[in-house]
Amino acid sequence: ATITTHHKEPVKHAISHTVWVSTGLVVAAILLAMFGVLSDDWAVEEESETIELFGTEITTKTESEIGLDDFSSTVCINGNCTTQTNDLGSVYDNCTSIAADMGSNSSETEEMCGDLGDTARAGFTGMIFITVGICVMLTTLLATFMSTRGTVFPYAQYYPFGGAALTLVGVVAWKMILPEG
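^ thats the sequence. predicted structure below, dont judge the formating
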């Protein structure tokens, strides 16, 4: 007695579609995470004010954008704009150096530079978790490729969840460490 199955080809075809869909989703997640790490738009603040000075109306617009490792500030006065971009870690180091030159004690330095340091630490922590998440998602692609060749990695079905979880932890850690205001 021989048992034959008539569904071998459709099952292989369905697996092929599943592999393509999951691979596409992982690639999309990697690209989104990479764009997020490189973006300076993690926290954006805009202010606009119009004042009258000596009978002339002056409109000022200020926009600040904070990323994981740098920030930029754009100031426009009557449409004439100037943009400045700085690295958060360097600005914090400069601030503590200026505080030391002024003879400030540690509590005065913390009051003056603490928010900059917390913002730099928040970005660094978020960047580490998101980068590790991206690496795990790249490992997912490798595991998927290897499984199509017959080599199955242990627990490979959980790799995408680990990469996504690490990316989420990076975003949440950044938000929790980031100082108010």
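The first helix runs from residue 8 to 38.
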